[in-house]
Amino acid sequence: MNEQPLLHNSAAPRPRRAYGSVPTRVLIFAAFVLLLSLCFFKALSSLTSLALYDELHSHVLLVPFIAAYLLYIIRDQLPKTYCSSFTWAILALTGGTTVLIIASARHTSWLTMSMLAFLCYLAAGGFVFLGKHWMKAATFPFAFLLFMIPLPGSLVQWLENASKLASADCASFLLHLTGVPLLRDGTIFQLPGIILEVAQECSGIRSSLVLLISSILASYLFLTRPFNRLILILVAIPLGVLRNGFRIAVIGLLCVRYGPSMIHSVIHRSGGPLFFVLSLIPSIVILWTLRRNERGVRVQKKTRQSNTGDESGIFTSQ
Asked: Interhelix angle for 24-39 vs 110-129, to 10°?
């Protein structure tokens, strides 16, 4: 019996596995991002300092890591071929340059305008090195980077005033439901034994912003229908107001029940995370309901398709 040599095909060339290899264009784009970051080093360092010392923008440092994770989970959906799109790149480049010119001329909101220009240049590099089809597939992760842009001071002040007034309205409504005697003058509440004022720091804008970002992220990860995603995002706004109004009403009731010293209690000074978690409960319930509805619709579609296939098979056999 002839035996085949064990090392007969050992010298034959083996095809290389492409798994894990990084395309050249992706590496060039990564080098471009590094170079762009060095050019905007002053703005990025200022943004880091702002995130470390300003609670409103403390989420900024997490945004790029979340965007990178989103790209990772959709990596199989990203195009494997790259074709430069210079038209879109020129538009993004023009937008970023225009923003920088406006920022240098007005000398206002420098950090906000600089970060907006940074993202415009980043998009331009994406269109040049990766192409419009790749950028289209990565629309949400890239758009999520917009949360890196710090809010200008004038917008923050307007949002705080609007949130403060809306929260005061909600707190007044809740306090009236409890039957507690109440006199209100704008954001000032006169309760039995104490007078409360909804200050600028009590606007709850930071928690509302985090709740909005969380809703946007959850809508992308767990929902598929655009209308359902819009519902979950829009619900975050009134939930933020309701959470803050409920917190003000609870503190007011505690002051009436246990004395004015409750204004200095832990619930007032450090109770923000607790009330934020409470506001997540209705968001999770709404998300679960919308997701269950989508699953029901998909099951119905599959059932109809299977029934249609059975019927067509019956007619064919006949």
From this structure: 160
